[in-house]
Task: structure prediction
Amino acid sequence: MNLRKVFLILVMFGVWIPASGQNANLLKNPSGDEGSEHWRAFKDAKVEQCPTGGRCFVLRGGGYFTQEVAIPKDAVYALLIGRTYSGRTSTDGAITVLPSLYGYMMNSGDPSGGRIYAYLSGQQMTGSANSLNYWTQLWGVFRVKPGTGRISFFLRQSIKEDSGYNGAVTRFDDLGLYIFPAESQARAFVSQSVPGALFGPTNAIEKRFQCWVEREVMPSLYGIQLGMSLQDVVSRFPDASNEPNVVRALESSKSPMRTDSIRMLIENRSGDQNLREVKRFLFAFFNKRLFSLTVELHSPQWKDVEEFIDQRADLLNLLDLPQASAWEPVEGNAKAGKYLICHGIEIRFYAAPLGSANMNLLSLTDTTVEATLASANLHP
Result:
């Protein structure tokens, strides 16, 4: 039975009680009836006629589909669900390629990038070796992380380590992304389409920390504060005034027709000892005002993000910040990333793993401006 029929039955018998109208499937073209419309296809990812009838999404050789889905501000739980079919084993009979749903919870913004708040995997998001040659249901219920404005929904093939795709074909159909006000309602929805579904422990919503006093008390980094003008920021880096990135940003800001953001990167080449740990600054402006700042830092490499926060939170010039243990973890990468959101301002620390070529990052973002930009892009 497909998800659309399940939903109709739930409504008819009063089992499913929607909240705030958030009962609709947020995915567009969830069964491939419109071809690959609304999806981005990578490598060998196509919509084809399925052997069992109807159209479906088909992956070969590591191909994958993804769709960006805006979600409501008051979303509490998200359900990712869909049917999958695999029909190939390796020569020794072992299944080396499994169908997989996957996702990111991300900030509002450009589909080509952004900040990740959670990596959505586990639960029943990957098929099993027992699901060969028949349709089976995959699903996962996740608490929506603070700051999330969209979910990236992936269809992909998972392979065992040191094994190839070996011509494996994976199919997906009747996909869905649903928002629920309570985990119990999301699980009830799953149980209707997957009789006997087993669930793990309830995901309790943690008690939030207290924000600093008011929005006007802004954090800053190296003397740079959100809301500063483009000209004021550039004036802080006189040695960089002739760099192409800076000149381009200043020229772009002169256009009265400019309605999108302006990005600017400044490499730290100054001899200022106060900036000795900084590799580069990345700025984003809207209406000539700074709304996002990311600082890339050289070593030292911290053992984890909590040590990074405890040692360098002083850079923010804020009093009464909570201990690192109380910060919101990036789900699926909690050892490396944590963040806070207060009064619409996000502070994020990222500690590059030991031995990694990545830089340590510290960022400030005005998420209200970011959401305004995202809404303008969705509704031009």
Notes: The chain is about 15% helix and 35% strand.
